Amino acid sequence: HGGKDPGAVNGGFKEKDIVLNIALKLAEILRSNGIEVFLTRDGDIYDNVNEKAGRANRSNADLFISLHCNSAALVSANGTECLIYGYDGESDALAADIQNAIVQVLKTVDRGVKIRKDLAVLNSTKMPAVLVETAFISNSTDKEKLINKTNEFAMAIAAGIFEYLGMEDL
Q1: Which residues, 6 or more positions from 42, have their beta carbon under 8 angstroms from its beta carbon?
Q2: Which residues pair with 64 in a beta bridge?
Q3: Partners of residue 126 on adjacent β-strands
Q4: 105 contacts 97 by C-beta, under 8 angstroms
Q5: Which of 17, 72, 139, 147 is most buried by its number of CB atoms within 10 A?
Q6: pTM of the entire structure?
Q7: Taking Cα atoms as reference points, which of 77, 65, 73, 80 lies closest to residue 131?
Q8: Which of 102, 103, 33 is nearest to 65 (CA)?
């Protein structure tokens, strides 16, 4: 999402803005802990998902993390889930660490790690890849967290990455 694509929207809040804020804070945390970070977008621009996957592959990144806000017609739907292409011992381990950290820190409902073979950022990247559905923008409680706890989301995702890499926690 980004640019012409707002992603999910609720009450004037746009997925593209929320996840960019989380991504920028996450990048800062990772960099301050010695991790090189390549962002597929660092502003309000639009690139299609195939281009994002291609840029990630060309960057020779070790991991690919795609940040999103979930949305559903049923406003009671809530929680966090991480999506992966398949159980390969790497993507699923990374996803589990990120999932657990977000659920513990932000007290979101644990919707688990799920397989999604149809997503380009998962099926076209050559490194372990996780699509993080942070929380539901369509749910009032989750939306409040997405708006007011971007730092906590970034710190939790970083903690999950650190756990996966075997690094000291924040």
Answers
A1: 20, 23, 24, 27
A2: 129
A3: none
A4: no
A5: 139
A6: 0.96
A7: 65
A8: 102
Task: Tell me, letter by letter, the H, E, C secondary structure of the chain.
Answer: CECCECCCEECCEEHHHHHHHHHHHHHHHHHHCCCCCCCCCCCCCCCCHHHHHHHHHHCCCCCEEEEEEECCCCCCCCCEEEEECCCCCCHHHHHHHHHHHHHHHHCCCEEEEEECCCCHHHHCCCCCEEEEEEEECCCHHHHHHHHHCHHHHHHHHHHHHHHHHCCCCC
With contact defined as beta carbons under 8 Å apart, do 39 and 52 qualify?
A: no
The pair of three-digit structure tokens given for residue 48, joined into one six-digit string:
């299609």
Residue at 100: amino acid letter: N
